[in-house]
Amino acid sequence: MKRSKKILICGGGIAGPACAWWLTKYGFSVVVVEKATAFRDGGQNVDVKGAGQQVINLMGLTEQIEARNTLECGQKWLDAAGEVVAVFPKGGFGTLTSDFEILRGDFARVLFDATRSTCEYRFGTSVVGMEEREDDVCATFADGSTEEFELVICADGLSSSTRDLALAQETRLRYLGAYMAFFKIPRRPEDDFWACSVNGIGGTMINLRPGGPTETTVLITFLANEPDPKRPSTVSRRDMLRAALEGRGTVADRIVGELGAVQDFYFGPMSQVQASTWSKGRLVLLGDAAHCPTPFTGKGTALALVGAYVLAGEIKKCSTHTKAFQTYESILRPYAERSQQELSPRLIRLMHVKTRFGISVARIVQRFFGSALIQSLLKPSTAAKARKIDEDFALPVY
Ligand SMILES: Cc1cc2nc3c(=O)[nH]c(=O)nc-3n(C[C@H](O)[C@H](O)[C@H](O)COP(=O)(O)OP(=O)(O)OC[C@H]3O[C@@H](n4cnc5c(N)ncnc54)[C@H](O)[C@@H]3O)c2cc1C
Q1: Is the pLDDT assigned to residue 175 strictly greater than 70?
Q2: Quick check: is 396 in a domain?
Q3: 106/190 same-domain check
Q4: pLDDT tens string 179-211
Q5: Where is average pLDDT lowest: 6-10, 135-139, 146-150, 199-203?
């Protein structure tokens, strides 16, 4: 495509800066607008597997990412009193821990630093209107100013408002039956480098993970009815979380005790983005805005990186934006949909055990699969599964 006008990227999270990196490498001028007033370094442990890892390699960022590895050495299942039930070491069967464990904020920082001198970042603003014309798009910003762009890339996450300007009818959020909250609490001397998971009675699951020298990250998910946008809840988010943690044992009590002082509190329904098309005219969706699989799949970041690579590559390669967007979607959609299909409301219900009996069964299963004998027997199939993830998506060459 010609490089006459600037490309606008809405969203300075993971997908936006990654796409900016590739587009500027190909000679395009890029403006990234981010709604937050400054770079957002929030978030928890994200893992980058398979094709996402290959994109990091191609960008030459592997060393920088590895230097920020959280050093998590595996996953322990605890009972409500904090006693270890079963241990799943990194590299073994059934563990949460992958090779590339990094805090989302650290990862976003690496991408931001790698692009801040090659493209223009504008913080504290967003696009509130768009007019598509024959040769460009005229974007209206929150302060009322307008500007012309060749293309608009919506990389503003799960609740993308720029997507809603053009593709609201084509998009739906698929609620998976649970809420999730993530935030950080102060690290305690007893916090080690293991992810600690607790499955409490009543459908609440807690994960504590290493979050750097002074912090421990917390991810809590719990079963709940779908929120009704017409009847906003009168219960505050923190009170809703407190109710889900009440009486769930010592790990839960620790979190309730810290909740009042938590700063970077994220809370929301666990939903996937399902869009029947990813583009309209000169506007295209990227990352979570197109196909959020939810943090529970562990695929959102890898998908964002791969999508950024493919979209930028097709924009470079194709003669028109229409062709570029169509090819990008046809290459990426099957991969994104496979990732989303790994989760269903049924699976989420199964994972969030509600009864004492269910917890007892879960403990038996955890002890069985965590035993040294079963771990060693399953080692070959775990290695084969890891290879399969690597082969899950063949990166096109641009
Ligand atoms: C603060 C934060 C913490 C997160 N923590 C985790 C986590 O712990 N675990 C996990 O698996 N995933 C987490 N995610 C989601 C994860 O980053 C994504 O699933 C994945 O990396 C895909 O990235 P993305 O760039 O598409 O979306 P995101 O990373 O969500 O980035 C979207 C960006 O767009 C910005 N934005 C929103 N609306 C607008 C607008 N109208 N105009 C301009 N900019 C806008 C947001 O501020 C954000 O910076 C988090 C996201 C954020 C924003």
Answers
A1: yes
A2: no
A3: no
A4: 999 999 999 998 999 999 998 778 899 999 999
A5: 199-203
Name the residue with the closest Cα to ligand 1, atom 23: 14
- Whether 1 is covered by a domain: the verdict is no
- Expressed in angstroms and rounded, the spacing between residue 13 Cα and the centre of ligand 1 is 5
Indicate whether 398 belongs to any domain.
Answer: no
266 & 385 share domain: yes
Residue 234 is predicted with a pLDDT of 64
φ and ψ at 154, to 5 degrees?
Answer: -90, 105
- How far is it, in rounded angstroms, from Cα 249 to Cα 85? 15
Question: In DSSP terms, which residues pair with 104 in a beta bridge?
Answer: none
d(CA 268, CA 181): 7
Mutate to test the pocket of ligand 1, among 34, 103, 215 (most ligand atoms within 8 A of CB): 34
User: What's the ipTM?
Assistant: 0.94
Same-domain pairing of 146 and 165 = yes
